[in-house]
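Course assignment 3, question 2. Fill in each field.
Student: A.L.
Task: Predict the tertiary structure for the chain below.
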Amino acid sequence: MLSVFFKSAIVLLVIFPNFVLAQVFGNFLTAQTAYFLGDKTAQREGFLTFNPAKHLDLKGSLIFLSVILFANMLLGDSPVTSLVFVFLLVANIRRPVIVPVNEENFKNPILGECATILADPLGSIFYSFLCLACIRFLPIDLPALVWQFFDAGATIGIQLGVLDLIPLPPQ
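Answer field:
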């Protein structure tokens, strides 16, 4: 019984922070891209920050975390747990906060709209590459939890980036 709670605590320490960081990187890059291309809406709304409170819906994130923890407690490290994670993302349970963008403020509206649409998935993938760089360049004698954190970060960043490319309607 204790090992189940211990594994759930590891999931809490590894998966949820990576999920938050990948989401924040994607939203920040969207806001920065819009700002760079002439739209100051995201800056006025406070999205040019790495503060997770601005980029995440607390209720949706807690539901997401609860289901992942429950699935991990029931199923362990099986592939079904990964399928539950992907299902939650596809079902849009995480309910990301949409960065406000006004296409009329762009210097080039078509380029601005395309760039801001692609910025969110690219930000999540960039986070994945940061985690992979940490795996490559950090000393080998770090605790296993650090390696699990960066490995999960690389996986979650890619999953969020790829799933953000799927045109799902917002809820």
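Instructor remarks: DSSP finds seven helices and no strands in the chain. Residues 2-36 form the longest helix (35 residues).
Grade: pending
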